[in-house]
């Protein structure tokens, strides 16, 4: 046995002795390393980029703001410029900057609860506050979530009309990430907003990725936002900023939110790095997002064709025609086997087809999220099919 083969065998035996958690941690480290060294990729998540990569964003700061102005203090200066920019893009009177989206939406909805006299918030069971915020609405802000459905789709107007109790607000996540980045049709969205107002509830959009929705709705941002009383947006999920969020709405609501922002500890002494990165993202990434969405549809079709040609029993791209530049891919294999094959493919070819983890909703099924960004625009459909064929070879040998 050669030295290389002996080393590979010893390494494989070592991995077998690891616990499931240890193996997954090692796989994550390998995936991140492969991402950083990849020559070709569809999109690299912000979390996988180096500090040097992230700091390079500031090279464009002078293009979006006068750097000879004084630094911000407790929400003035560049933070106010960003707030005005967001309010203008969304067609609202004003906007308030927050360090996190979790804080931003709690504050917005507790302010609405004070105005309506009703702390109940109707929302999807797969919405971000229910899935990823440790019950913050009820535990921190005195709000009472009312789950309308847990099905992997958007809410319907009939479901809103059929609620058996009054609610103060309806929160809609656009797109609904945990259901596959799905959006309603424009007609459906309009009807849902109307149904909420028939019940005298305000409409709040969880628009963390709303920036990506204009192609699907075939409407500009301000027309989409006009359906809601308030709109939350994120600066890092689509725009590559360092973090941060904003809520846009009526001036009186924004004034009240800023008071609560202070109480929640969100009026940070200086926020200029985050604010500048958000302005850069609005300048550079926002205009590119429609191209990412359109190309994601090319990639989705090529993935389906590639797996069919490789003899995979079935493949599901969800939604079938992506609503944004992000979508789900489902495969009929064990998630650990798929994840190992994906990392090996990236390590051996330096082509990163899958940059995000693989989950196992049930045994024998694997699902991941595909994110098409600037790097992915260079991929043709043939490029995608070739990468799928290379990956499928490794998948078959790892099962």
UniProtKB/TrEMBL annotation:
Obligatory cofactor(s): pyridoxal 5'-phosphate
InterPro entries given in the database record: ArAA_b-elim_lyase/Thr_aldolase, PyrdxlP-dep_Trfase, PyrdxlP-dep_Trfase_major, PyrdxlP-dep_Trfase_small
One of the Pfam families matching this protein, by short name: Beta_elim_lyase
GO annotation terms (biological process): glycine biosynthetic process; L-threonine catabolic process
Key words, A-Z: Pyridoxal phosphate
Any GO MF annotation of the entry: L-allo-threonine aldolase activity
Annotated region (Disordered), positions in chain: 1-20
Entry keyword Transport: no
Aromatic amino acid beta-eliminating lyase/threonine aldolase domain boundaries: 74-304
Keyword Flavoprotein: no
An annotated GO cellular component: cytosol
Compositional bias of kind Basic and acidic residues: 10-20
Homology family: Belongs to the threonine aldolase family.
Protein name: Threonine aldolase
Originating organism: Streptomyces davaonensis (strain DSM 101723 / JCM 4913 / KCC S-0913 / 768)
């Amino acid at each position: 046995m050669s030295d290389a083969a002996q080393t590979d065998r010893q390494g494989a035996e070592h991995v077998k002795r690891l616990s499931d958690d240890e193996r997954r941690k090692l796989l994550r480290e390998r995936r991140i390393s492969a991402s950083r060294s990849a020559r070709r990729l569809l999109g690299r998540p912000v979390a996988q980029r180096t500090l040097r990569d992230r700091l390079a964003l500031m090279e464009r700061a002078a293009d979006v703001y006068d750097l000879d102005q004084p630094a911000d203090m407790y929400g003035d200066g560049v933070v106010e410029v960003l707030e005005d920019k967001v309010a203008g893009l969304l067609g609202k009177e004003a906007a308030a900057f927050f360090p996190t989206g979790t804080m931003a939406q709690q504050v917005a909805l507790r302010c609405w609860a004070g105005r309506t006299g009703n702390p109940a918030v109707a929302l999807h069971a797969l919405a971000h506050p229910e899935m990823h915020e440790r019950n913050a609405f009820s535990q921190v802000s005195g709000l009472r979530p009312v789950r309308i459905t847990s099905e992997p789709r958007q809410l319907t107007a009939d479901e809103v009309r059929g609620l058996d109790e009054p609610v103060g607000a309806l929160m809609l996540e656009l797109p609904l990430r945990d259901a596959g980045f799905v959006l309603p049709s424009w007609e459906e969205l309009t009807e849902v907003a109307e149904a909420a107002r028939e019940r005298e509830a305000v409409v709040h959009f969880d628009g963390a990725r709303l920036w990506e929705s204009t192609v699907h709705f075939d409407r500009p941002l301000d027309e989409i936002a006009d359906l809601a009383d308030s709109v939350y947006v994120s600066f890092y999920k689509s725009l590559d900023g360092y973090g941060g969020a904003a809520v846009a709405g009526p001036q009186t609501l924004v004034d009240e939110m800023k008071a609560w922002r202070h109480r929640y500890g969100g009026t940070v002494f200086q926020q200029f790095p985050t604010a500048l990165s958000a302005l850069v993202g609005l300048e550079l990434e926002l205009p590119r997002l429609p191209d990412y969405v359109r190309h994601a549809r090319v990639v989705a079709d090529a993935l389906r064709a590639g797996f069919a040609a490789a003899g995979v029993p079935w493949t599901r791209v969800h939604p079938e025609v992506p609503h944004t530049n992000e979508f789900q891919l489902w495969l009929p294999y064990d998630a650990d086997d798929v994840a190992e094959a994906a990392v090996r493919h990236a390590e051996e070819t330096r082509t990163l087809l899958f940059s995000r983890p693989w989950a196992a909703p049930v045994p024998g099924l694997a699902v991941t999220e595909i994110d098409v960004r600037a790097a992915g625009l260079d991929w043709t459909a043939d490029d995608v099919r070739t990468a799928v064929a290379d990956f499928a070879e490794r998948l078959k040998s790892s099962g």
